[in-house]
């Protein structure tokens, strides 16, 4: 606390990101980063852009990137908004769409940044409980207030909804915006972007952080009908007209163009996920069905806190959320098969001792 703080600062509950260790060689399975990294063409493109042109401001409209993203969905650049990571896109959506309209509905167990933005923008959260299997009670999402936010696949469970269920949420909320956060959609769920032409209340948010291996570049985007996109642009141009710098634009455009690298590494991650689930089951773990690049798993005989600490002592970082209903679970990022085997070896050593 400081006497210089504005009134709102004291009321915030800032998001806690996963640990980013410095200088140690740890196996990092705690923040859902991509094990293979971006396409080599991304590095080339960033190198090629790193010259005296950095004295110039970047394109404030990010037209080339928005055009490329739109094209892959059969939409024009007027249907695409880009931001400094999808967290920033989400923040602008709260300011442009949800603020000042009553309660915003989202699941009791989901991405914790939604609550953080509720505090920041003065939006009241209305938590809809997931069922005992951590599945979404679709009919319960009828937001008469500010709107609805759905993470698909959900985090940290990894469980995905089908497109029919997303469409049901859209149909039962025709007068409010349904924001679908698709940070992990490429690992096995179906994107709602195809529904954008038919639903003016749909805002789809994606990121290059997870499936394009670019968490460090900070590029996210939204797809929606142009009226919603214009609202986001009005907030962006009242906040920071240049959220994507020249290097980020160059890298993101190259990442989007290299479909082959994207698909090949995504398939490797999906195959490793299946292998990891099977290996964990051999050790007695129960894992929720994941369509993401992480698994959410629990062991009947061993607490998650203990496993977290013992794994850390063996150089393996995973994530634990000390929250009701999920405190017994660990969220483990799907890495390379070598990283997966190091995790399994550490667990096999820890479990018999407890
Ligand atoms: C990682 C993540 C994001 C944010 O990713 P950015 O790196 O800010 O693009 C958004 N939503 C969910 C559910 C995530 O897991």
From TrEMBL:
It comes from Flavimaricola marinus. It holds the Pfam family Aminotran_1_2. GO terms for biological process: L-histidine biosynthetic process. It is an enzyme of class 2 (transferase). The keyword Metal-binding does not apply. Belongs to the class-II pyridoxal-phosphate-dependent aminotransferase family. Histidinol-phosphate aminotransferase subfamily. Keywords: Amino-acid biosynthesis, Aminotransferase, Histidine biosynthesis, Pyridoxal phosphate, Transferase. It comes from the Bacteria. Pathway: Amino-acid biosynthesis; L-histidine biosynthesis; L-histidine from 5-phospho-alpha-D-ribose 1-diphosphate: step 7/9. Gene3D superfamilies: Aspartate Aminotransferase, domain 1, Type I PLP-dependent aspartate aminotransferase-like (Major domain). The modification N6-(pyridoxal phosphate)lysine is found at residue 210. Residues 26-347 form the Aminotransferase class I/classII large domain. This is Histidinol-phosphate aminotransferase. Its cofactor is pyridoxal 5'-phosphate. NCBIfam families: hisC. It catalyses: L-histidinol phosphate + 2-oxoglutarate = 3-(imidazol-4-yl)-2-oxopropyl phosphate + L-glutamate. One of its GO terms (molecular function) is pyridoxal phosphate binding. Its EC number is 2.6.1.9. Homodimer.
């Amino acid at each position: 606390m400081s006497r210089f703080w504005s009134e709102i600062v004291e009321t915030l509950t800032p998001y806690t990101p996963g640990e980013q260790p410095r200088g140690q060689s740890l196996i990092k399975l705690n923040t859902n980063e991509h094990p293979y990294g971006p396409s080599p063409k991304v590095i080339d493109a960033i190198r090629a852009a790193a010259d005296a042109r950095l004295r110039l401001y970047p394109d404030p409209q990010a037209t080339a990137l928005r055009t490329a993203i739109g094209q892959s969905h059969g939409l024009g650049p007027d249907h695409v908004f880009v931001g400094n990571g999808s967290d920033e896109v989400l923040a602008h959506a709260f300011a442009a769409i949800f603020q000042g309209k009553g309660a915003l509905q989202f699941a009791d167990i989901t991405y914790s940044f939604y609550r953080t933005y509720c505090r920041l923008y003065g939006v009241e959260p209305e938590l809809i409980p997931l069922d005992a299997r951590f599945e979404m009670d679709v009919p319960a999402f009828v937001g008469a207030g500010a709107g609805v936010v759905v993470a698909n696949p959900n985090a940290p469970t990894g469980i995905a909804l089908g497109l029919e269920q997303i469409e049901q949420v859209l149909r039962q909320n025709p007068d409010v915006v349904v924001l679908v956060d698709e940070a992990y959609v490429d690992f096995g769920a179906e994107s709602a972007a195809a529904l954008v032409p038919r639903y003016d209340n749909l805002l789809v948010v994606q990121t290059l952080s997870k499936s394009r291996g670019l968490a460090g570049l900070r590029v996210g985007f939204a797809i929606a009908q142009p009226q919603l996109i214009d609202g986001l642009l009005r907030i962006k141009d009242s906040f920071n007209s240049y959220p994507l710098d020249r290097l980020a634009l160059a890298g993101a455009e190259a990442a989007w163009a290299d479909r082959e690298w994207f698909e090949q590494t995504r398939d490797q991650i999906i195959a490793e996920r299946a292998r990891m689930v099977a290996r964990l089951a051999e050790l007695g773990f129960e894992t929720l069905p994941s369509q993401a690049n992480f698994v959410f798993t629990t062991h009947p005989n061993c607490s998650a806190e203990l496993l977290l600490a013992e794994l850390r002592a063996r150089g393996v970082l995973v994530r634990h959320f000390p929250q009701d209903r999920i405190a017994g679970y660990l969220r483990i990022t799907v890495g390379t098969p070598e990283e997966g085997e190091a995790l399994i070896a550490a667990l096999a050593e820890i479990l018999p001792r407890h």
